[in-house]
Queue: 2 jobs
Job 1
Amino acid sequence: MTSSWNDRFSPRMAHVRASEIRELLKLLDQPDILSFAGGIPDPALFPIARIAELYGEVLAEAGDQALQYSVSEGLPALRRWIAERMTAQGAPCDEGNIIITAGSQQALDLIGKLFIGRGDAVLVERPTYMGALGAFNAYEPSYADLGGDVPAGARLAYVVPDFANPSGRTMPRREREALLARATAHDLVVIEDGAYRDLRFTGTDEPSILALDVARSGGIEAARTLYCGTFSKTLSPALRLGWVCGPRAVIDKLVLLKQGCDLHVSTINQMVAARVVAEGYEDHLERLRKHYHARASAMQAALARHMPLGVSWSKPQGGMFVWLTLPEGLDGAQLLEAALAEERVAFVPGGPFFAVDPEPNTLRLAYSLLSPADIDEGVRRLGRLIEGRLAYAGSNVARAATGRA
Ligand SMILES: Cc1ncc(COP(=O)(O)O)c(C=O)c1O
């Protein structure tokens, strides 16, 4: 039966596959597992009490409007607030430059639908956010390394320039400028995924690529960058509230696509979010940054303490992720199986974060959900496992060298 369904699916479904890793990670909610797998916000930081009050207030004040259909581009009040913030951060714009999307994940899907034709090349980082690949895959692109030559037929460059998922890396300003120069030379649209941008806990802000683009091109209408933002990492992912900021000509098309997709984001959720952000969002962000900074510091200390020689890792200035590189020959996916079975610790192997030519000796550790004490214990277990694997590999090499079985 399954095979006849497969025959009926459109050819694009050949590119849409379940991630084995995601399937495996579904099994991870046993309480004794210390999990560095889920890159999700700490629920302790959700402003639950205030959000509960605001649903009451919104229903009392806006009444049936809160429960009614609303415009596809999103609530004017929320779009205006976002436009003012983007303006304050160096990309002057107004609400006509903003569409509210169901998380930034929907923004990636709509952008894929708008720009990617079958076989068009999309330039991505190595590694990149696997959810972006998941969104783009349905439009049947080919992928090329952002660091390599730009192939003929390249249309888009997708980047996560601040504290990237999964690498934790931040693109320095000169790299952002170089990317814009290349994008201009090859007429590429730049998709800037700013999912973690508000979560910088050390160092100084880099200008967004959109801000650099606006400065360079003379205004947002002349820019080639589409900035994707989200409230998922700062307020709550369940609100499903993200946005795209870009030239009106693009926003207008995205609005048409959104109409065809799901009409609009939940009216009441947008009303609540517009009120939450209007009252002390920056203070709220400060609290988040302190919280994640403590965890990131615990993670760095634990890695330095427990990882054997030959393992290296990134040192993020914000966000939720550290990227670990194991000595050649070790495989993140195999290590995960052993980590679950032997050490009751979980992470995401790095392979699926590569659009092409995966580097199997890599993995992603998220530090957003565990306490500093659990971070130390989890990294201790992981370090012990890797050390054991290295010793085993080393003894095999030694045995091979001496010709002993
Ligand atoms: C880099 C990046 N972009 C986009 C998303 C999608 O988030 P949301 O749709 O909740 O805004 C995520 C979520 O993990 C992410 O890490």
Job 2
Amino acid sequence: MTTWLVTGGAGYIGSHVVRVLQASGRGVVVLDDFSAGIESKVPDGVPIVRASVLDRVAVEQALRDHQIDGVIHLAAKKAAGESVDIPLEYYRENVVGMLTLLEAMQAADVKALVYSSSAAVYGTPMSNPISEDFPMQPESPYGETKVAGEWMARDCGVANGLSWIALRYFNVAGAASDDLGDPSVNNLVPMVFRALSNGERPQVFGDDYPTPDGSCIRDYIHVADLAEAHVAAAARCETGVRAEAFNVGRGEGTSVLEVMNMVSEVIGTDVNAEIVGRRAGDPPASYAATAAIESELGWQASRDLRAMVSSAWSAWQSNER
Ligand SMILES: NC(=O)c1ccc[n+]([C@@H]2O[C@H](COP(=O)([O-])OP(=O)(O)OC[C@H]3O[C@@H](n4cnc5c(N)ncnc54)[C@H](O)[C@@H]3O)[C@@H](O)[C@H]2O)c1
């Protein structure tokens, strides 16, 4: 049995990853500074290291104490818009954090890494679907930090045989259970729920894009499917693969208005969305080519938009009570 350290394991995605890793029979340890994480999301019995990935001594100690075989590195700041205003905080948490983790891994001779990357590395794609060999042209400091993380992993792969996989997540939604919902308000589905809870109309940023219904198109992926992709990636790293970046999406574009319609269907009442102006920096469309992860890791998403919206709504309501 191998043991994996999950940084950011008390967060939205990390708490799902911890559960599927456990279910796969692997040992799991969580390292989190609880800047955004919630302790009750870590299952009973999973050891928690309360530390920042910026703390080199604490990370190396955790790797040695728990005889870690590999790391799934999710701990990061994640709001692209915010990163434009406070870029240095993003560089510190995401880039220095990754650097510090890699130094600690090298010192403790831990040679497997699954890294949380993002579709933000592509910026506005030249066409869709986006395959992994498209140029990385991030359009925010956040996206830049994710590119820098991939570069650091790549270079460590060459220099010291690090076996790594970067997973470029598209738009994550849903919850595996009511206690694991997405509490942040950066993503579309929770933004809609928050507006409804506040008695406001959810906003659609632009309906004049060159898309069939004029609203932006994205690739929505259920967090439970995404979590399973981490297990597939960890299993591959355990075999000593050198280096790879994979898109994690459904390979299907869904417009913002289609999401609004699905929310209306799920909650049983029209959300009555309000069309407002475009937001700066939103590409008209972004969805993944998924052939590589399907053929290389044997992973494919199985949950649809309705499952995402209905599980997210159920989790949201349970938090409101
Ligand atoms: N949610 C998305 O739609 C999405 C999309 C693409 C990529 N990602 C990436 O996935 C990862 C996880 O995202 P999430 O949605 O679960 O976010 P989240 O904020 O819920 O989780 C991040 C976790 O990391 C912890 N953390 C932050 N900085 C830390 C540090 N310096 N040291 C230790 N722990 C720290 C937080 O306390 C939190 O528990 C991030 O790397 C993010 O960039 C998320």
